[in-house]
Amino acid sequence: MNLNATLFAQIVVFFILAWFTMKFVWPPIMKALDERATKIADGLAAAERGRHSLELASKNSADTIREGKEKVAEVLAQAEKRAQEIIEAAKQQAKTEADMVVAGAKAEIEQEAARVKESLRERVAELAIAGAEKILRREVDVKAHASMLAAIKQDL
């Protein structure tokens, strides 16, 4: 064998193999690599969008929490204000009821005082009649006695 013919044959086989590889093997490999690069780029873009969405969600949740705390504080303030109003109303109602009880007690005391005065007048009149009877040592009839008592009551 001739070294030149072997070298020439190897060069021809190498070029055929290179052509075959470039024609049939290389395009699917390049296509797969391009698809993989596209998937990686899409994944990176999606990750970036996800990171951006996460930042927005964090900001929104912080705002929502802040608004919620403000609303809770407002509701608590309103509840405290309402509680104070209820307490004041209860105090006012209790004072009114106490005044009514005191007024009723005063009226009852006045009535009892009037009854005691009336009873005292009757007793004083009876004692006066009894004393006058003993002094005069004569008995007064019932009608005269009743009219005397009425007259003495009126004088007292």
Automatic annotation (TrEMBL):
Main location: membrane
Coiled-coil intervals: 69-126
InterPro entries, A to Z: ATP_synth_B-like_membr_sf, ATP_synth_b/b'su_bac/chlpt, ATP_synth_F0_bsu_bac, ATP_synthase_B_chain
Membrane topology, as annotated: Single-pass membrane protein
TM regions (residue ranges): 6-26
Gene3D superfamilies noted in UniProt: 6.10.250.1580
GO CC, one annotated term: endomembrane system
GO molecular function, one term: hydrolase activity
Keyword field contains Transmembrane helix: yes
Annotated localization: Cell membrane; Endomembrane system
Key words of the record: ATP synthesis, Cell membrane, CF(0), Coiled coil, Hydrogen ion transport, Hydrolase, Ion transport, Membrane, Transmembrane, Transmembrane helix, Transport
PANTHER family (UniProt xref): ATP SYNTHASE SUBUNIT B (PTHR33445:SF1), ATP SYNTHASE SUBUNIT B', CHLOROPLASTIC (PTHR33445)
Similarity annotation: Belongs to the ATPase B chain family.
Its job: Component of the F(0) channel, it forms part of the peripheral stalk, linking F(1) to F(0). The b'-subunit is a diverged and duplicated form of b found in plants and photosynthetic bacteria.
Complex and partners: F-type ATPases have 2 components, F(1) - the catalytic core - and F(0) - the membrane proton channel. F(1) has five subunits: alpha(3), beta(3), gamma(1), delta(1), epsilon(1). F(0) has four main subunits: a(1), b(2) and c(10-14). The alpha and beta chains form an alternating ring which encloses part of the gamma chain. F(1) is attached to F(0) by a central stalk formed by the gamma and epsilon chains, while a peripheral stalk is formed by the delta and b chains. F-type ATPases have 2 components, F(1) - the catalytic core - and F(0) - the membrane proton channel. F(1) has five subunits: alpha(3), beta(3), gamma(1), delta(1), epsilon(1). F(0) has three main subunits: a(1), b(2) and c(10-14). The alpha and beta chains form an alternating ring which encloses part of the gamma chain. F(1) is attached to F(0) by a central stalk formed by the gamma and epsilon chains, while a peripheral stalk is formed by the delta and b chains.
Protein name, as recorded: ATP synthase subunit b
Organism whose genome encodes this protein: Candidatus Propionivibrio aalborgensis
Taxonomic classification: Bacteria, Pseudomonadati, Pseudomonadota, Betaproteobacteria, Rhodocyclales
Gene transcribed to yield this protein: atpF
